[in-house]
Specification:
This protein is of the alpha+beta class. It has 8 helices and 7 strands, in the order ααβαββαβαβααββα. Strand 6 and strand 7 form a beta hairpin. Helix 4 crosses helix 7.
């Protein structure tokens, strides 16, 4: 087990010992969200924001132990996993982030406000982002041992190498290699086929609907 996985387990164990993990998970379930692992136990989950090993350096998901999504988004993620397994039985989806309560969004905004990371966190005053509706997921591909496949950058890398709209140029310039290029294309093709949309700046982020559709049809997770 690598260091990142150990950190995740320690944080989640700590949350359980302090008695708040079940309460928060139960709260998210009460909001109509579903635990993606209950729909498909082969989907791996490592909630990066439940650890300090993230771009903010703080565990902002204290007490959230599972990847929660609105049922509509969860069904699409399960469909993506099934598509992936049909094509590549040796691979599986690995979820880094899913539904995010608006209370957490406000905390994240305070941490990045006034820094060079501010453009990568949706302003809660403007309604937040699709994570706050349970309609977005951050995901990558992992091998049979659970190790993430190379994608050219780590998760939450804020630079052009993580962009999805110029990967041919990144490949030709040697900023990502062919293996990462192919892995991104596989992930994106599977997720799109399952009904997800991409964004230009983060290869790991997928939306289950547009922001306008979310605001019209789905409640914000408080």
């Amino acid at each position: 087990m690598n260091l990142k996985k150990c950190l995740i387990l320690l944080v989640l164990l700590s949350a359980c010992l302090y008695g708040n993990a079940e309460d928060l998970d139960a709260y998210l379930r009460s909001k109509g969200l579903v635990d993606v692992s209950e729909l498909d136990s082969t989907i791996r989950v490592e909630l990066i924001y439940a650890t300090t090993d993230n771009f903010m350096g703080e565990a902002v998901y204290s007490g959230i132990t599972r990847a929660w999504l609105h049922p509509d988004a969860a069904r699409k993620l399960v469909a993506a996993q099934q598509l992936l397994k049909k094509e590549r039985p040796d691979l599986t989806l690995l979820v880094y982030d899913a539904a995010r309560p608006m209370s957490v969004q406000r905390r994240m905004w305070k941490l990045v406000r006034g820094t060079d990371k501010v453009n990568y966190v949706s302003n809660p005053a403007n309604g937040g982002g699709l994570h706050n509706y349970g309609m977005a997921v951050d995901v990558t591909l992992s091998d049979e041992s659970g190790e993430p496949l190379p994608m050219g950058t780590p998760f939450d890398f804020f630079g052009e190498e993580a962009h999805t709209n110029n990967e041919e140029a990144l490949l030709n310039a040697g900023k990502i290699d062919r293996k990462a290029f192919d892995n991104r294309r596989l992930l994106r093709r599977i997720m799109r086929k399952a009904g997800f949309r991409i964004i230009p700046y983060e290869w790991w982020h997928f939306n289950a609907c547009s922001r306008a559709e979310a605001r019209q049809s789905y409640p914000v997770v408080d």
